[in-house]
Amino acid sequence: SVQEDVTLSQNPISKVELFPNPTIDFLTVRLEGVSVRNLNISLRNIIGNEMPLDVEYLAENEFKVRVKDFGTGYYLIAMQDEKSGFKGTYKFIKR
After folding, report:
1. How far apart are CA 77 and CA 52, in angstroms?
2. How is 40-77 classified by DSSP, letter by letter?
3. pLDDT at 5
4. 10 or 23: which carries more pLDDT confidence?
5. pLDDT at residue 7, rounded to an integer
6. What SS3 state is found at 25?
């Protein structure tokens, strides 16, 4: 498309949504253009420590991650899908 976002031009994916952000209990992630079941997902706090990953798949393009027991602050969720070549890291806030 002509209005392609330059930062996503390497990715076949058109949209990544994280909500609610800031979050308290769960972070829901919705992707367009890739099946979330093929994703390699990792979660880190802002200083890079890996966090426990508790994922519930809601739909082919949507999943939620439990963050209820995390401390308040910024976290990074990294997702990668070898099949489509999609790769991205996104920041969210835990309240």
Report:
1. 12
2. EEEEEETTS-B----EEEEETTEEEEE-TTSPSEEEEE
3. 44
4. 23
5. 47
6. coil
